[in-house]
């Protein structure tokens, strides 16, 4: 045999899935087999290797260091086989693509543009998932993710830059004259987001403008602070991408325009060879539609 130490090939898929999920039940569900079938294959693999691969507790299953090492190699091999198969296969991939996007950007920019996506890329069906921060493509079944680069991207992930993040104060048009004075924000209730608590300080440090608040209020998410701004509760620091439509409709104004905060948004993928052609089409659409988000730094301008 050419590979004398190769374990039984039919044990490798159940093994990799069990390590990834740390659960035979979850592995069985993913592979559409019974728990018993996965358990038998794991035992066959342990017998073939002559070592235990899991520490079994009453309600836990923990992969050993040797199991994690082997699973990483198996996963790489499966990725290469999958990529090669995609390159030579003529079958169209089935099912929708899962696109994960930060919640505020998803709600206020991406969802309103879904009709354009359907018309422009009719062969791509997208399942949207709200999420932020680190991405686990395999674990969560994510094909692409839109993320801001304020954390390290996963090792080996492919990243395509979309646009620079730009921030600025926004408020309801009728409130602007009384809240914006002497080159700064005066007498306004400052709206803060718990997800970006330093946004106002960041804007002040980058622009040198003064801020003299009449009060302050913190809400849990960015989209809540923006809704509060539209309702006239106060002034919010907003990323241009998520208020572009509000500016165009006249619901909000940005008296000082927007300034780059040093971060950018990217679309992330697993970075595997022979990617699904639909992934390329969706990435191209995102790049084209976000191009306008990199312009318009003048006060109150709407590109």
Describe the structure.
The protein is α/β, with parallel strands linked by helices. The protein folds into 2 domains: 9-88, Winged helix-like DNA-binding domain superfamily/Winged helix DNA-binding domain (Arc Repressor Mutant, subunit A), CATH 1.10.10.10; 95-303, D-Maltodextrin-Binding Protein, domain 2 (3-Layer(aba) Sandwich). Helices cover 40% and strands 23% of the residues. Strands 3, 4, 5, 6, 7, 8, 9, 10 and 11 form a 9-stranded mixed β-sheet that branches. The model is unreliable at 296-303 (pLDDT under 50).
What is the element layout, followed by pairings?
Elements: H1 12-21, H2 24-31, H3 35-49, E1 54-56, E2 61-63, H4 65-88, E3 97-101, H5 103-110, H6 114-120, E4 126-130, H7 137-140, E5 144-148, E6 158-170, H8 176-179, E7 180-181, E8 184-193, H9 199-207, E9 211-219, H10 222-230, E10 235-239, H11 240-249, E11 259-269, H12 277-290
Parallel strand pairs: 3-4, 3-5, 8-9, 8-10
Antiparallel strand pairs: 1-2, 5-11, 6-10, 6-11, 7-8
Helix pairs in contact: 1-2, 1-3, 1-4, 2-3, 5-11
Using DSSP, what is the number of strands? 11
The fold-level CATH name of the largest domain is: D-Maltodextrin-Binding Protein, domain 2
CATH architecture verdict of the largest domain: 3-Layer(aba) Sandwich
H-E string? HHHEEHEHHEHEEHEEHEHEHEH
Share of residues in strands: 15-25%
């Amino acid at each position: 045999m050419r590979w004398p130490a190769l374990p039984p090939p039919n044990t490798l898929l159940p093994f990799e899935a069990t390590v990834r999920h740390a659960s035979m039940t979850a592995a069985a569900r993913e592979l559409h087999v019974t728990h018993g079938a996965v358990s038998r294959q794991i035992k066959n693999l342990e017998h073939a290797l002559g070592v235990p691969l899991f520490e079994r507790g009453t309600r836990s299953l923990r992969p050993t260091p040797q199991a994690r090492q082997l699973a990483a190699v198996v996963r790489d091999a499966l990725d290469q086989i999958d990529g090669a198969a995609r390159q030579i296969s003529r079958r169209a991939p089935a099912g929708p693509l899962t696109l994960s996007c930060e919640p505020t950007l998803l709600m206020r920019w991406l969802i309103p543009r879904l009709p354009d996506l359907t018309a422009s890329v009719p062969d791509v069906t997208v399942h949207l998932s709200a999420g932020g921060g680190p991405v686990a493509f395999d674990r969560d079944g994510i094909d692409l993710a839109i993320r801001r680069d304020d954390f390290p991207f996963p090792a080996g992930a492919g990243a395509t830059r979309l646009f620079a993040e730009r921030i600025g104060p926004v408020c309801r048009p009728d409130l602007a004259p009384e809240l914006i004075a002497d080159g700064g924000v005066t007498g306004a209730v400052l709206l803060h987001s718990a997800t970006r608590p330093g946004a106002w300080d960041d804007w002040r440090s980058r622009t040198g403008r003064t801020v003299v608040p009449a009060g302050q209020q913190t809400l849990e998410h960015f989209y809540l602070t923006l809704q509060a701004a539209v309702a006239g509760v106060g002034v919010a620091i907003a990323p241009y991408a998520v208020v572009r439509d509000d500016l165009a409709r006249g619901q909000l104004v940005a008296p000082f325009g927007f300034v780059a905060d040093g971060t950018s948004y990217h679309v992330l993928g697993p970075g595997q060879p022979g990617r699904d052609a639909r992934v390329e089409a969706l990435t191209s659409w995102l790049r084209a539609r976000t191009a306008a988000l990199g312009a318009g730094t003048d006060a109150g301008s709407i590109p």
